[in-house]
Every structure is written in C-alpha cells, then in structure tokens.
Design a protein that fits this description.
This protein is α/β, with parallel strands linked by helices. It contains four helices and five strands; from the N terminus they run ββααβαβαβ.
C-alpha cells in the first residue's frame, strides 16, 4: 500500500481505491486544500466538532490535531468509511469517533 502525506496528514491509499480525479487531487495536494487552510481559523482548542461527511478522513485528522478537540465524524459511503478509518487510525489519538451512517430524523433503521 502506498503512503504519502497531504496537508501534513499521512494517507495510506492506493490509486484503485479512489477515482482518478480524487487520486490526481491527492497527489497534487489540491484535495480539500481550501478546507485544510480554513480549519485553524474555524476550530479552537477545546472545541467539540460534529463532522458530517468524513470523506477520506484528511480534514478530520487536521481537526483532531488541535489541542483538546473531540471529533464525532459520520460518513455515509461504506467504502469511504473504511478509507477514512485507515487515515484516522494512522493520524489521530483517541479524540475521534468515526461512524458509518446517515443522520436523519426519526427512529434508527438499517438501509
């Protein structure tokens, strides 16, 4: 498995696990670059963050580096959730909870 760094986050991923467009953005450093730049201005030490749409877990990992931050992150796509788990496990301590699912009104149910 190939591992590289983007926005200071270690990413263990292979080209066949993502689309060609996402792979190109990852390799060039463009993947979620705007979001990565905005995290330090949006999240303060001690914040509690609810992230809807973890994607590959890169922004989650950037958020989790901030002192005393806790992150609850959800991803709807099961394959993407597995990729995010790999990234988060490699980069984060115990301050991130990642869940596969969709938040919606009403009682819990499986789809």
């Amino acid at each position: 498995m190939k591992e590289f760094s983007i926005h200071g986050v270690r990413v263990p991923i292979t080209p066949d696990e993502v689309s060609a467009e996402i792979w190109a953005a990852l390799r060039s450093g463009r993947y979620e670059a705007n979001e990565a730049r905005r995290v330090p201005r949006a999240i303060q030490p001690g914040d509690r963050v609810l992230e809807l749409g973890a994607g590959l877990g890169i922004i989650t990992s950037i958020i989790a580096r901030i002192e005393d931050v806790r992150v609850w992150s959800f991803e709807a796509d099961p394959q993407t959730t597995q990729l995010a788990k790999r990234v988060i496990d490699l980069n984060c301590s115990e301050n991130v909870i990642l869940a596969h699912g969709i938040l919606a009104a009403g009682p819990p149910r499986t789809r």
